[in-house]
Design brief:
Blueprint: E1 2-7, E2 9-11, E3 33-35, H1 37-53, E4 56-63, H2 68-76, E5 81-86, H3 94-105, E6 112-116, H4 127-135, E7 139-143, E8 145-149, E9 159-166, E10 169-176, E11 179-183, H5 195-203, E12 207-210, H6 243-252
Parallel strand pairs: 1-4, 1-6, 4-5, 5-12, 6-11, 7-11
Antiparallel strand pairs: 2-3, 8-9, 9-10
Helix pairs in contact: 2-5, 3-4
């Protein structure tokens, strides 16, 4: 089975979020970049499928030259091929991103296109659906379990079953291949890259293609960090002298009988 997983280079934010001085980007001076957790799970799912059924996994991203680092991270997890749709670093909206991906994978002979359910930075949820629409393929989103149904002896009729939970109900989709599926974090537990995998990824050649995309009518005006709610701390006292005040507070809160 030939699987292509589309990933996105996103800021790695582990604490307080800050924006750059011009208010146009997240400040990653003290952090770095990674791929979205949903997409890491998509790569893991693709690798598991090919380990069971054979085939290969391609990882693809649209981004600046530095995005090759994220492709190598995914190659270290077990993907066999990396493709960079290279841009000049200008942010591309969901319409342009989907158009560029559809143009790149349309003739690739892939049986399955996997995406993360949404990017960690924008949370747009749009790209997988737009790619499926552009290619005329069936699509399922928000998937938490995926199974490939065995094909006939001639290889025809291969299908997948994809399931998700929605408002307490389990929904199961039966899709013919090729198809587009977006998965959510939790569908699996991604493996840690092995040392041989890291070495192989470091030596791998990333295929670079100049991305062809057009403006999609969206423009970023500015980013801002929402103002956090004010917090206030009151010191009741120190040592035994704080006990009366503590008792009064507990009584006000209704903790004491």
């Amino acid at each position: 089975m030939q699987i292509c997983v589309c990933v996105k280079r996103v800021p790695m934010v582990g604490g307080t979020i800050a924006v750059t001085g011009d208010g146009m980007d997240v400040d990653v001076t003290m952090s770095g970049f990674t791929v979205s957790p949903h997409e890491e799970c998509a790569v893991e799912e693709a690798v598991r499928i090919t380990e069971r059924l054979g085939g290969s996994v391609t990882v693809l991203t649209l981004g600046p030259p530095q995005a090759a680092d994220q492709l190598r991270d995914m190659l270290a997890l077990g993907a066999g091929r990396g493709i960079l749709l290279q841009t000049d670093g200008t942010e591309v909206g969901p319409v342009g991103t989907a158009a560029a991906i559809a143009a790149a994978v349309g003739g690739g002979g892939y049986d399955l296109l996997l995406f993360g359910n949404e990017a960690a930075d924008t949370g747009g949820y749009q790209v997988p659906v737009r790619v499926a629409h552009a290619l005329g393929l069936p699509c399922a989103t928000g998937i938490k379990a995926l199974e490939v149904v065995a094909a006939g002896e001639d290889g025809a009729g291969q299908r997948i079953t994809a399931s998700r939970e929605y408002r307490g109900t389990q929904e199961v989709f039966d899709l013919p291949l090729p198809a587009v599926v977006s998965v959510k974090e939790g569908i699996n537990l991604p493996r840690y890259p092995s040392l041989p995998g890291r070495l192989r990824a470091k030596r791998a050649v990333i295929e670079t293609v100049e991305a062809g995309h057009s403006a999609d009518g969206l423009a970023k005006r500015a980013l801002r960090v929402p103002q956090a709610a004010a917090k206030q701390t009151t010191v009741l006292g120190t040592g035994a002298g704080a006990v009366p005040a503590l008792v009064r507070l507990l009584d006000e809160l209704g903790v004491l009988p």
